[in-house]
Model the fold of this input.
Amino acid sequence: DVKKVLEIPRKERKQIFVTNMSVYFADDIATAKFGGEGFLKEGKRKKTTTGMFGMPRGMGFPGMMMPGMGMPGAPPKFALKRYAKKGETGEEVGGAGFVVTIAGYSPYKNIGGLMDPAGVENDPNKWGVVTRLLHLDDIVDGNSPFKLYRKAEIEHFKLETGEVALDAKMPVGVGIEDTKSKKSRREEIDEQILIDPMTKEIISRVAELDEYGGEEIDRSGNVVYKVNDHWFRLDVKFAWRDAPEPNY
Done:
């Protein structure tokens, strides 16, 4: 229900929207590499200007609203990758498991606190996405066959976040493109933006306007922006307890 969603200020909505996901099996997760290289791509901020009269001038989790965890805009892309091979010595270092990449965005004001909050181990009500992945036994049935692998090591765990912006390197499939018009003293500017496909709210970073309707400039001569949503990319590995032996 869009009306009910809009009753909650966007930055207060504890939601994540998954736009891409990659999962593949590895018989040795210690040496397996993360996939989903194409999840992040460069964007370009485009503007077109017209005269004032339109004449062209050059062409849920509990407490986290996780039922709202959806895939607006482009459908999620599930990529099945190849099997990762053992190291040259053939030594089983980490055992079998799965290598997972999840990417998307969130309207919540504190993306870090939503994904991987610090110091909340003893308070399940404050757990984030990663905290829950660390406590699969508590969430599932007390006997999950999977365990998050070596979160403290960057080659096995990585969380990236950033501002949603057309000129930013961020996951593909975030929002849908639209145009926002704004007027200055001399011309009308059409600014390309990204919007939420369900609520039509602006999710990308946009320039603040001054009293004359133009872009607000700070003392250093830089444009002042209003930050809206944030994107995320999460790379994790899961060890598979009691995994069947590979049949080579």
